[in-house]
Amino acid sequence: MSEDAPFRTRRDPGEGNPRDLRYPPLPEPLEVGTYDNHTHFDFADGEHPLSASEQLDLASQAGILGVVQVGVTLESSIWSANLAAREARVLAAVALHPNEAPIYETEDALAAAIAQIELLASQPRVRAVGETGLDFFRTEGESSLKLQRMSFEEHIRIAKEQNIALMIHDREAHDEVLETLERLGAPDRVVLHCYSGDLDFAKKVAERGWYLSFAGNITIKRNQHLRDALEWAPKELLLVETDAPFLTPEPFRGRPNASYLVPITVRKMAEVRGIDANEMAAQLSENTERVYGSWSAA
Length: 298
Ligand SMILES: [Zn+2]
Ligand SMILES: [Zn+2]
What we know:
The chain has helices spanning 52-61, 74-86, 107-121, 142-162, 174-184, 199-207, 224-232, 262-273, 277-292; strands at 8-9, 34-39, 43-44, 64-70, 90-94, 126-135, 165-171, 190-192, 211-214, 238-240. It is α/β, with parallel strands linked by helices. It has one domain (64-292): Metal-dependent hydrolases (TIM Barrel, Alpha-Beta Barrel), CATH 3.20.20.140. The strands form 2 sheets. It has an 8-stranded parallel sheet with strand order 2-4-5-6-7-8-9-10. A two-stranded parallel sheet has the order 1-3. Helix 3 (107-121) packs parallel to helix 4 (142-162) and helix 8 packs across helix 9 (277-292). It starts with 7 loop residues before the first strand and ends in a 6-residue tail after the last helix. The relative contact order is 0.16.
């Protein structure tokens, strides 16, 4: 792999709050391999951001069998699809992120960009439409929210037409995400990426057969509501992700995240559910392949 990602820069946390920009050390590898079902290789982080191939090599050393590289703009979706087409350890998800959709300003401009996403979604190694959804935390204002909702609805349509997974970003929008999917009809496979709800919401999600993808923030002390949801959720609906370079698990919180750190989150998931890490990893792999298909197939 030769081309480097068109890096986007991670936001600075602000003055007076310097981050430790060193990548954490390689954890003890998983004995039973599994997948990172949501990462962003094209977001630069750290003093010396690792390239996609460096990250993949470290991930392999940690027992990670493959990743889903997730697009958030048209540009990053094209890059993600191209990477998946030439790299056996990568599948792609393509979409305009809910906070990116309003940047198009008009419905016509947004529709034109979504038409490009639709073309990408038909490629054989693009196995999900995402990340799409609703974000009431970072998007404000009536016209922006209107575009965000239009974008979500169109992405749902594409996932259904292509019969691939729908990967949802839901930030402070649980009720409306659910309502939108109910109203339009959900695709067969729906993933709530970086699951952020509580136990009650997990019950509503699981009732519909949708997947809960847990990230490194389950290791943070104050997130007991996530661990409650994780402990309860049906095992066949669990997934693991990094959302790298964000959401680095403890004890490395604030440092750059990458797929090779998945073993930390898998071990925490196993601990919360009171099972062996190997059993957890095997279950996660089975679930991941059910959602996205095989990494080895074209
Ligand atoms: Zn997200
Ligand atoms: Zn993400």
